[in-house]
Amino acid sequence: MPTQPSKTLETFDNPQPNRDYLIHIEIPEFTSLCPLTGQPDFATLFLDYIPDKKNVELKALKLYIWSFREEGAFHEAITNKILDDLVEALQPRYMRLKAKWWVRGGIYTTVVAEHRKPGWAPQPMVELPEFETNDPTRG
């Protein structure tokens, strides 16, 4: 197999470091192993971050996520490990990782972990009016 999992998180320079902007990434095929049974655990990961000087390169992120496929860890530990590794690589202004784990033993688990860069505060959100769509079926 030419492509292999990797723990290396490659980055590139933020093209707009003077602006706060949100990057939203969904990873619907995350897998790891239950540390007690060795059975596979499945999750969808939702990564939101406001970069500072670096952004994550998506192929490297994919290979990094793939590297957990054969590792056993509890949901809480693996979610926080991924967040810690991403924060270390990127040093973002803000980052949130939400892991929605598939049912195991009749129980769904969702783990949310956050990081805020010391001294960083978000700008107030601008509320914009809602406009009608250009839907041709509207009356």
Automatic annotation (TrEMBL):
* UniProt-listed Enzyme Commission number(s): 1.7.1.13
Cite the annotated pathway: tRNA modification; tRNA-queuosine biosynthesis
Q: Where is it mostly found?
A: cytoplasm
Reactions catalysed according to its record: 7-aminomethyl-7-carbaguanine + 2 NADP(+) = 7-cyano-7-carbaguanine + 2 NADPH + 3 H(+)
Give the GO molecular function terms. Answer: preQ1 synthase activity
UniProt record, GO biological process? tRNA queuosine(34) biosynthetic process
Which keywords does this Swiss-Prot/TrEMBL entry list? Cytoplasm, NADP, Oxidoreductase, Queuosine biosynthesis
- InterPro entries, alphabetically? GTP-CH-I_C/QueF (IPR043133), NADPH_dep_7-cyano-7-deazaG_red (IPR050084), QueF (IPR029500), QueF_type1 (IPR016856)
Which residues does the record give as substrate binding sites? 56-58, 75-76
Q: Which GO terms describe its cellular component?
A: cytoplasm
**Record's keyword annotation contains Repressor:** no
Name the family the entry cites.
Answer: Belongs to the GTP cyclohydrolase I family. QueF type 1 subfamily.
Q: What is this protein called?
A: NADPH-dependent 7-cyano-7-deazaguanine reductase
Gene label: queF
